[in-house]
Prior knowledge:
This protein is an alpha/beta fold.
Amino acid sequence: MDYDIFISCKSEDYKYAEEIYYFLVENGLNTFLAPMELRLLGESEYRKAITSALESTYHLLLFASNPEYINSSWVYYEWDLFINAKLSGFKTGQLVTVWKDVPVKDIPMVLCKYESFNMEDYKQRLLPYVETPAHQERVREAKEIANAREQVFAIAEELKGKIGGILSNDIPKLNEALGKAKITRRVCPVCGCEIAISDKFCRECSWILSPFDGITELADIMFDASDLLKTAQSVYKTNKFHNEKALNDSRCKIGKLEQRCRCLEEEIDSKDVELNQLQLFLNKREEEIRSLQRRIEELEMVHAIEVGKLSQELVVARGQINSTSPELQEKPSETIEETGTEIIPTDRSVQNDDLFDRITKKMQKKF
Length: 367
């Protein structure tokens, strides 16, 4: 396939290049962009396909959003091959550049002499530089087809009026005769589809039918309009081709949108899984917190019980101290305890103080 223009860019710039691609296609230019046709090819087949497309293209458009992308391996290979082909006389088309956020000082000197555009305003100025003889011929043919179609309908309207005037009185007789002959169907002379005798126009191609059109049994008396029919058939086939092409383009765009939707659905499913895992983690932590709260409540209960017991012991100890006679508190009496051969004096008040100290230490140790 011959291309009007080849878009060269790094894979990171495909999202911008696709916008340029659709702009050129909508304006009737056969445009080549690698991800549209070569995504599934291996490296050896990819190089062969790229080289073949470069050989068949008329113009080359170089796009970059980063100065480093200009000299990347594949991009450099494409624009360098095209420039060498121009210098050798094999190419007569233009090399144009479209930049996005690329400073002029970072553009290679060899590219500075070619026409340059910005991503923001290329639509206003680009088309005149990428016109090709093939594209101009297609535009001319499209205009001729449109004019021929208008002429066909004008002639058809004229014939309809003439035939209607001539046969207005004879049409009932003709229909009666066709009914007796059991002729109920006829064939459209433009698209060839079968239609009813009573239909005044073809439901497939909208051709306006005369009373004799498509009735093979009455071929000898049909109006001779072979040139008109040939023109109408040509218009029909051309429109059918363009409609099928538009339908295929629409299907391609729908396929890409469906693929994008599937990718988004997969991302959403992945986020849902992460969210569920996070929810499980939070539930587990909440259960641990509730368990810790129950443990704290249990410890507080044990603490309260221990405090009550120690308070009771303290009260008992104070009662024992207070029960000691005042005389012994003022003048502590000494008792003699015999331990082996050694005699040790014992003071009852000292014993009471020891008891109080032990209880206090026990409380301090508990808390």
